[in-house]
Amino acid sequence: MAALACLALGASPVPARRAATPPLVRAIPPISPAAVFGTDRRVPLPAQWKDVQDKIGLLFHVRARMVCTAFCVAKDIIATAGHCLYRTLGERPPQLDEFWFGRNYDTVRDFARIAGHGNASVAQHIMSGAMSLSVRPPIDATRDWALVRLARPACSKGVLALSVLGMEEILREAEAKHVFHVSYHRDFTPWKPAYARPCGVARNFEGADWDTIARDFADPASLILHTCATGGASSGSPLLLDTPAGPAVIGMNIGTYLQSKVVMQAGQVMRRMKADTIANTAVNSKSFAEKLELFRQAVILRSGAPMRELQARLRQHHLFAGKEDGNYGAALRSAIEAYEEEQGLPVTGLATQAVLQRLQR
């Protein structure tokens, strides 16, 4: 008998519909929650947390039938799960210029596009942990984050502060019932934000201890395993800490960690048992908080000639082997990261004026 693990992601499909400007996510029939542990504690957002509603929204793509939660971290920057934009390893990603962000979706519907949507440079305005994510061991959960620059400052009502805590401190705060969750869920009164408290956080769970769990993840040190109830569209939602200064983001919900027992014979899976839901997963805010200021200050190159020059100069350094087509993709990102690391610079993977100017010396 052996165990196989995977990550079930919390992005949700939306019904196909004809294009509108801006498009709307229609109400859809209730479905079963993705992962509820014990009693479902989700309730409508209490009055004391109404200001949080102004700082979160829906990120959606109607043609790709994708919807996730996202939250404001700067006036023109939101944070969400990376798989909401890129999907996972082997899947075809949706067109990035067709995404919309609807802040405070149920009440305000303050819509914004991703920066660069009008000049084919959307990809350059996204900073993420990875552009290709594995949901099988080693699971890339802690790289499943993205910072997205909007075409205008839609987060005008404020942002959610990012708090960087070590795992032991998060465990203590959860034990004190200070950790809670706010998200949109497909199965909870679409599309109104739900509140859940308290959220349990642990290392060991029934049927899976930390040593076993850690082997399934690429970077277990940055992983938060929690029991906040989740549903479809909860990917990218904030795991929050109640502090005297107000709610602070300590992590981002990604998906649900599953394990299934299998019968092996001669290295082949002969029989697979029903998968057990172990816990929900979140990436510690440390993974993206330290990148936010770099992203805010980055001056992104225009598409076309500047990007082609960047590609050519990285080729001269034997770091880029793709086409000099002026487009930003995985190969160019990897080349920029390699150059930044080589030069002792903060690693961002962003196509910026600063990187090009350094290459021009």
Description:
About 2% of the residues have low confidence. The protein has 361 residues and is of the alpha+beta class. It has two domains: 293 residues, Trypsin-like serine proteases (Thrombin, subunit H), CATH 2.40.10; 61 residues, PGBD-like superfamily/PGBD (Muramoyl-pentapeptide Carboxypeptidase, domain 1, Orthogonal Bundle). The strands form two sheets. Strands 1, 2, 10, 11, 12, 13, 14, 15, 16, 17 and 18 form an eleven-stranded mixed β-sheet that branches. Strands 7-6-3-4-5-9-8 form a seven-stranded antiparallel β-sheet, with helices on one face. The chain has eight helices and 18 strands.
Order of helices and strands: EEHEEEHEEEEEHEEEHEEEEEHHHH
Indicate the percent of residues in helices: 10-25%
Give the number of domains.
Answer: 2
Number of helices: 8
Beta-strand content bin: 25-35%
The CATH class of the largest domain turns out to be: Mainly Beta
What is the CATH superfamily label of the largest domain? Trypsin-like serine proteases
Structural class: alpha+beta
In CATH, the topology of the largest domain is named: Thrombin, subunit H
Outline type: globular
Q: Biggest sheet, in brief?
A: 11 strands, mixed
Count of DSSP strands: 18
What do the pLDDT scores average to? Answer: 89
Quick synopsis:
It contains eight helices and 18 strands. It is α+β, with helices and mostly antiparallel strands.
Describe the protein's topology.
Layout (H helix, E strand, L loop, with lengths): L1 E8 L33 E2 L5 H4 L2 E6 L4 E9 L2 E4 L2 H4 L13 E4 L6 E4 L12 E3 L17 E4 L11 E2 L4 H9 L3 E5 L10 E3 L4 E2 L7 H5 L8 E4 L11 E6 L2 E20 L2 E5 L3 E9 L1 H12 L7 H12 L13 H13 L10 H7 L2
